[in-house]
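FAQ: What does the model actually see?

It sees only this:
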Amino acid sequence: MNTPGGHQRLAVLLGIRYGCRDQSRPLLPATPEGSRLLERIDRLVTSHFGRRVALQRLDYLALFPLSLDAVRAALELLGEIGEAAPGCGLQIAIHLGDVALDDGEEDPAAADLVSAVTSFAQPRSLLITQAVYEQIWDKPGLEIVPLGNRLPPGVGHRIFLYAVMQRRERNLTSRLVRISRRHPLLTALPLLAATLAGAYLYRHLNTPRSPEAYYIALQPFVDLSASRQDTFSEGFSEVIATQLSSLPNVYVVPAGEGVAAPLRLEGGLSAEEGSIRVQYRLVRTTDGKVLDAAVLDGLRDEIFQLQDRVARAVVKVLETELGMEENALEKSARPTDSIPAYDYYLQGITYLRQNLSRQAALAAARLFEQATREDPRFADAWAGLCMARWQLYDNVQQEQYVTLARQACREALRLDPKLALAHTALGMLEWGTGRLEEAKRSFLRALELDPKDAYNLRSLGRLLESQGAFEEAEETFRKAIKLAPGMWSTYMAYGAFLFNRGRYEEAIDAFNTVLSLTPDNSWALTNLSAAYLHNGNFENASLALQRAQRIEKNYGGYVNAGAVYYYLGRYKEAAAMYREAIRLVPADHRTWGSLAEALIRLPGEEAAARRALEQAILQARKRLQVVAEESETLAGIAWYAACLDRRKEALDALRQALSGDSTGMYVHYFAARTWRRLGFPKEAQIALDQALRLGFPPALAKADPELEGLRSSIEGIILTGTQ
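And it is asked to produce this:
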């Protein structure tokens, strides 16, 4: 189409309205607050290579060279600006259309369409048209939900729309915890957890084992209900993934995670007042052709039958596309016949995925308890209860939760001895309480029951690492990555292994791989900051932490920020960060000890430092009630007691630590600090040399004021307490 202003070009149009549920009038340019909001939008749009054009039908219109740039800008806008007022927010639409290059004006038809779609969107949402979808559907980190053919006001014809969100890894393995219990100052470096088992959603993230193996990319079914019920839609996806994975040589992978798959299954689910509607599409990824699509209606207590219908529809397409027989599908064993129990179970899983807080663990435990009351024979719910109770212990360090967790795991295995999830949960419980051989048996049994589960393989790798079998552990991690090349959490676990081995450059690469798959993963950024810190790059460590804290304020971020400030000699800021960490997780002795170290160097804080040290000893001794004779905890007690001038207590704890498992570098690091503070420079020197031999970072040793004046014979390192 020609215009007076010049020739045309296809470009990406991003339109924004600022709306409220009870107002349709544009609000952005009308107030001083609106003007400031426009400035923020301009900055974000420009940072993603976009430019604003003349405002006519919208509060805001911008052009982008690429669809992916526009989508990333939109998601960042929604994430940063969010809900500016209750019920109000940005309504964003993206479309591919013609623009006039010479005069900078948009094509009216394209702008009209974008304007109509934005008015169709809800506050704080992003909608895209088919042309945009075709350019971004396979990009990692995005969750794209088909909404079907819709009729936006004023368009005159139906268009196919999609909702786009930042993708969350909907997998039980997305639970995150700290990199073991091995770091004195980065006391809670968060990493991929092994306390939750990936027994359901995307549990079979694998590569083909033969030329006849087939991939299906599964886009998690999204909740389309008026009242959000994400747990139900997540559970629906989980069961379908499990059913399809039972097919010979069929492997289910997350859509958009960089693994080529000829077929993609996507859809949504709405559940209102006892009824359910499921809509799905099966797409051939090579040409975008929709091979099958349907809307299924049923009652809420028919959820399992609806899952079976979707899975069998997929197999029917596989029969045509891949020559597979429909009767190859095994009917998925229902975990429970009780819909209320299933509801409680799915809600409990969601709480465990959300964060590491005591509140989340407590809520999950109550929901799993409700599920077991509704159906006392629901083995999966008992396994979930085991996980939740262990997480409660991890937060509050109260021994009763270990006993309760063990009871729940045993009940799960009594009900279903072949439930891989229960064996994995028990393995994590055994590992966390120092029963390593028992943990290993549980992990191996889980892998025997479910050999496609990369998560269990990864858990075994972490256990082997803790036993000092480093070569075998690394080989196991590499197998897990080969089995699940698109699962970010596998790289997170491998990064932890590399970090603990002192291979910081490789750990940085692993954490950056996680970020390439999940760009807004605050835990990966927190881990990246720790790797930079140990590598002596304090500036990059600080930048990674700042970015992580903008996304999500979490315990590990506060701890790592405190460590950065401590090594830079900014003790007041370090203490503030440690206090924030303690507010979130008050039962970790290492954080109390780190707070005390910062307070010791601040004038007038002597009394507060002593109180922190007393708390550190108290929490450490509680830890020993669960994991008896843990060398690193005993070495920590020695250090805290030395700071309190309690020489006998310090020496007794140190001798216990060194007579036990003293293969950890942090045992000797604490020993060096303790010997020096107690006035034994020769012993401190020997301990420091051993810590460095075992991999303690020289950059941190040089920056630690507690080691000032010591000279190491390792690699010519001279420690002068550089601050």
